[in-house]
Amino acid sequence: MSEEEKIELEEEEYTSQLTMSVLKRIIELLKPHKNWVLGFFIAIALTSALDGVFTYINKDIIDQGIVAKDVERMLELATLYGSFIFVQAIMVFAFVYLAGVLGERVQYDLRKMIFDHLQDLSLSYYSQTSVGRLMSRVTSDTGRVADLLTWGLLDTTWAVTNIITSVIFMAIINWRLAAIVFAIIPILIVVGIKFRQKILVEFRASRRANSKITGAYNENITGVRVVKALGREDENLEEFQYLTGDMYRASYKAAWLSALFLPVVQIIAAVALGAIVWYGGIQSQAGLLTVGGIHAFVSYLTFMLWPIRDIARVYAEMQHSIASAERIFNLVDTPSEVHNLPNAIDAKTLLGEIEFDHVDFYYEERKPVLTDFTLKVQPGEMIALVGPTGGGKSTIVNLLCRFYEPKHGRILINRRDYTEYTLESIHERIGIVLQTPHLFSGTIRDNILYGRLDSDHSDVEEAAKLAGAHNFITSLPKGYDEKVGEGGNLLSTGQKQLISLARAVLSQPELFIMDEATSSVDTLTEALIQKGMEHLLTGRTSFVVAHRLSTIRRADRILVIEDGRITEMGNHAELLRERGHYYRLYTQQFRQELEQHYGAIEITEDKKSKSAPEVISAD
Question: Three-state SS for 443?
């Protein structure tokens, strides 16, 4: 499945109406805050119901005060009206305050739920999902769902209460006129449903395009240096315009349908209002309806039609929110491919024999990365992995860290299948230094402390000294309190790598992994890293994926990995004597180093074959 197909699957457009299962899950988000919700409902219902009471009081003011010319009765009704205004003001304050509190609480719960689940998902999920799409879930989607459960709930409750109150008072005033209004309600409901279905389709298309735009934003901002270096600004702008064009077209159709809905409702309402005025006049002439009654009836009709006319806006916002809720639920329902078994136990220690037992692995079907991979590693042994790009070196250490699990075969630690151990007990005993070091925003001290949070300042300094990072850190203006910037962008690659190594030293791992950790640094930094490795690797089992072969000369065993298989294995001296792939890699790198130090050297194949044993140390 291509990345585009995965995006389409994730943003699948459901053209059927909202299912009860989705609605139930949305409502369940309010359960932890049921007392606040109850107060919220009461405040809204009272506020809306009082609007109906005000209209009925106005009717009595006209009939019993103005028409009857009874000033005393007018004052009584005006006092009652003012009292209810004071009560309604308190209720308005209450529901606005409660809406704000509920919105923030629901949004907090959603973000926490998403973040907790993201921590549990395996690396395979992140390799298939863009950061921008995930950020859209955590930010805009959670905000929309919170709005649905507060302001959307407010609009709905207010509308329902308005309609019920209006219907009751209209029936009290004149049931014959009320029957005319009741007749148009089914028509308005049918019209609303038809428009809702069409608006739903367009808003889902709009949200799908929005997710793609967010992903494009993220990729262009994080990769701005590459964009500028390659002069890709115009091409990226063209691609971005294409994405925004899709969103514009979908949003335009949704806006057009929403705009069309309002005049349709107004025309139906105008017909109903004309019928009421005509029949109300007849009733008034017959003495069955007062002037105040006609005025109240028209006001109630307006109250009842207001939420129906506004339904286009409410539907538009609801569909945005429902689509956001579905995407959030889709994310939190995504199972992790790597998880703890029901009876998983603590690993206790990783300082034991490690065995890859006929392991097969692939990222995509029919594209094997490792095939029948078998290896036994003794405690404290240093294993180096070399070979061409894409051969499976990083996959081996990813499997060992249990970021992924074998498709076939087993990995044993202390003669026990490592899936029987908890993920936490494995991960907390592994130290990793990657080719592209990642630092978190904050200070250098914060980033080193990430290796073991309960460490003190002396532990941090000792780890930095062992990693060879102390000297450059103390040369900075603020030393260990120097800010590293987002992703460590205020430091050089070599400095970030040394801090990553210090972080690994502080964690005191039982199993240590270096994945191309020196491939992007200068030779001076490489020497510092090698010195730090000597301290770190003592007494620990380690796997080192290397591009620069000078870093692995003292490895106990060097494995040449090609096409997911071990093609050569031995120590440095043994592999040089075999004159195989490792020999060719090493001599090529050795020659390049000579050229860098002494200028271009022309060496013929004959001379190279004769002199190679003399210049290459097999230490």
Answer: strand
Q: Which residue has the higher pLDDT, 436 or 571?
A: 571
Start-to-end C-alpha separation, the chain:
48
3 state DSSP class of 590:
helix
Q: What is the pLDDT of residue 9?
A: 39
pLDDT (tens digit per residue) in 550-579: 778 888 999 999 988 999 999 999 999 988
Residue 192: pLDDT band (50, 70, 90) is confident
Q: Cα angle at 281 between 277 and 285, to 5 degrees?
A: 170
SS (H, E, C) 92-151: HHHHHHHHHHHHHHHHHHHHHHHHHHHHHCCHHHHHHCCHHHHHHHHHHHHHHHHHHHHH
Mean pLDDT of all residues in the chain? 81
Tokens of 171: 């029936």
DSSP 3-state assignment of 530?
helix
Helices 153-173 and 34-60 pack at an angle, to 10 degrees, of 30
Is residue 371 classed as helix, strand or coil in its secondary structure? strand
pLDDT tens, residue by residue, 358-377: 999 998 888 899 999 999 99
Edge-first strand order for the sheet with 408-413 is 367-377, 354-364, 408-413, 416-417
- Give the residue-averaged pLDDT of 427-434: 86
Task: Determine how β-strand 367-377 pairs with β-strand 416-417.
Answer: unpaired
Return the CA Rg of the chain.
36
SS3 435: coil
Name the residue with higher pLDDT: 494 or 87.
87
Q: Give the torsion sign (CA, 12, 13, 14, 19).
A: positive
Contact 481, 469 (CB under 8 A): no
Full-model pTM: 0.70
* Encoded tokens for 72: 């005393």
| Length of the chain counted residue by residue | 619
Contacts of 289 (CB under 8 A, 6+ apart): 173, 174, 177, 280, 283, 297
